[in-house]
Automatic annotation (TrEMBL):
Signal peptide: none annotated. It holds the Pfam family BPD_transp_2. The lineage of its organism: Bacteria, Bacillati, Actinomycetota, Actinomycetes, Kitasatosporales. The keyword Lipid metabolism does not apply. Keywords: Amino-acid transport, Cell membrane, Membrane, Transmembrane, Transmembrane helix, Transport. This is Branched-chain amino acid ABC transporter permease. InterPro entries: ABC_transp_permease, BCAA_transport_permease. The chain crosses the membrane at residues 12-30, 37-54, 66-90, 102-122, 149-166, 195-218, 230-257, 264-285.
Length: 295
């Protein structure tokens, strides 16, 4: 029983991490029809920004307490700024050229890890979090790491915030309207470009937050972290349905749990295979994924 509880909590924590990455991918694709292959680079930038700040380079930031919260904010802000620059400098000129858009984001996704490797080396850098999150707590006989509930809470808050943004705020409604009829919204005097940049910033912030908190989950950051996690984020987006936040949330839970249980009860590494099998089986039954819409 204790093993099942521990695997479940760990799987939910991993699923929460996948959702933080996949939510931005799903939001950007669902609203802007952009497959951003540089999304993993934004995660890596957020992770390294958090590590850099927590290492004492940012005044007031550090590995413990409020200092670590400040480091996470700094890493998230760094990833958000990088997302805005990516949209303005790379994506915006290529909105009507999807093939070049994909090639450009792939290039950025390869260039950022290479740049980080050149600056700080390819070896993983340990990310030390607050002592309050370094221990475990008892749950039904299992000792669960304290950082797992933090990841789950962050994913739930991001999901709720995105839902509110899309359905209850003026900017969210403008973005949705701009997707449906860009010419009409522009004729009303609304700058749709700014709205799309806001969507990219939000997606980048979610990815950077995932990178910051992913350092807690793995205990380190490295240049290839974003690239490896991006693969599973795409699996989550396709499984949940392209452009569906609700589907991405459900798929994140399923992928995280399947991966953890398969890795434990079979040979290590077969969890990745099990995730691919899950995706293939689902697409045979439901080609559009679990939901297939932005909801």
């Amino acid at each position: 029983m204790a093993t099942v509880v521990l695997l479940t909590c760990t799987g939910l924590g991993l699923g929460a991490l996948y959702f933080l990455i996949a939510s931005g991918l799903s939001l950007i694709f669902g609203l802007m029809d952009v497959l951003n292959f540089a999304h993993g680079a934004l995660l890596t930038i957020g992770a390294y920004g958090t590590w850099w700040a927590a290492s004492g380079h940012l005044p007031g930031a550090g590995p413990g307490g409020a200092g670590f919260v400040l480091a996470v904010f700094f890493g998230t802000a760094t990833g958000t700024v990088a997302a805005v620059l990516l949209e303005v400098a790379v994506i915006r000129p290529l909105y009507t050229r999807p093939r070049e858009q994909i090639l450009a984001t792939v290039g950025v996704g390869l260039a950022v890890p290479a740049l980080l490797s050149a600056l700080w080396g390819a070896d993983p850098r340990p990310l030390t979090g607050p002592k309050a999150l370094s221990g475990t707590f008892g749950l039904l006989g299992a000792q669960v790491p304290l950082n797992r509930p933090v990841l789950i809470a962050a994913a739930v808050l991001v999901l709720a915030a995105l839902k509110l943004f899309l359905g209850r705020t003026r900017h969210g409604l403008v973005v949705r309207a701009g997707v449906e009829d860009r010419a009409m919204v522009t004729a009303l005097g609304i700058d749709v470009r700014k709205a799309f940049t806001l969507v990219f910033a939000i997606g980048g912030a979610a990815a950077a937050l995932g990178g910051a908190l992913g350092g807690l989950y793995f205990g380190s950051v490295d240049p290839g972290q974003g690239t490896s996690l991006l693969i599973f984020a795409f699996v989550v987006v396709v499984t949940g349905g392209l452009g569906s936040l609700t589907g991405a949330a459900l798929a994140s839970v399923a992928v995280g749990l399947v991966q953890q249980f398969a890795n434990y009860y079979t040979t290590a590494g077969l969890g990745d295979v099990a995730v691919v099998v899950l995706l293939a089986a689902l697409l045979l039954i439901r080609p559009r994924g679990l939901t297939g819409r932005l909801a």
